[in-house]
Specification:
Length: 237
């Protein structure tokens, strides 16, 4: 029988079965015809995902895989099946960096360890000047923050939304002439004593004490003239 296309190879003839070997086994004038060819991609880091141009082959290729899409074939932890972690790289090869894993930090201008909720940045770790807390109600005053002790100063020291809360307030009354007696009442609740001319009542006091006895507030001056002493007093009920 004629038709042998390679008479030096007993495995090559018109009756042979075509196998994947890069030659025309069955003398049909086509190499590896009728076989299934697949695309293989070089997998340099051995993570199961390849990169670069495909090589079509009917046999597996050593060091290559059938799945492409590796965005860094020198890093086995970076591939389409990886979990994105906060590290400033695209771990899962979706074209995004640190998506869904960034943390929010808040500016801490006064350095008290408490941040301003209105001034934020996102990062994997706190940048200089930022903290994870966002409860500071005055980030320009290091003495004002949720851990501060409320003191009597007319501001919200501990950031609980209340001013001078938990402190003892007294009622103070105008003592315009400083003699310790009150002619016209003028209530002024306050936790520190106000400046003169006021006298104070106890907590919850609503009426002033009786007028103080008249006192001689004069003292001699050179030449025999008398000088009036001025002063102011606080009376606690």
């Amino acid at each position: 029988m004629d038709g042998d296309c390679d008479d030096n190879n007993v495995l090559v003839n018109p009756g042979a079965i075509e196998v994947c070997n890069g030659i025309d086994d069955d003398c049909q004038r086509r190499n590896d015809d009728g076989l299934v060819f697949l695309n293989y991609y070089v997998d340099a880091d051995g993570d199961g995902f390849g990169a670069g141009l495909a090589t079509s082959s009917c046999n597996p290729i050593v060091g290559s895989v059938l799945v492409d899409g590796d965005c860094d074939d020198n890093a086995p932890l970076v591939n389409p099946s990886a979990t994105e972690v906060c590290n400033s790289i695209d771990d899962d090869c979706d074209g995004l960096i640190d998506e869904g894993v960034l943390l929010t930090f808040y500016a801490d201008v006064d350095g008290d360890g408490f941040g301003d909720a209105s001034s934020t940045t996102q990062a994997c770790s706190a940048p200089i000047g930022y903290v994870s807390d966002n409860t500071d109600c005055n980030d320009n005053n290091a003495a004002v923050n949720p851990s501060a002790t409320e003191v009597c100063n007319g501001i919200d020291d501990d950031c609980n939304g209340l001013i001078d809360d938990g402190l003892a307030f007294l009622n103070y009354y105008v003592d315009a002439d400083g003699d310790g007696s009150v002619l016209v009442l003028s209530d002024l609740p306050s936790c520190p004593p106000p400046p003169a001319p006021f006298w104070g009542g106890g907590v919850g006091a609503t009426t002033p004490p009786p007028p103080a006895p008249a006192q001689d507030n004069t003292e001699p001056e050179p030449g025999g003239r008398a000088k009036r002493r001025r002063g102011w007093s606080f009376f606690l009920i």
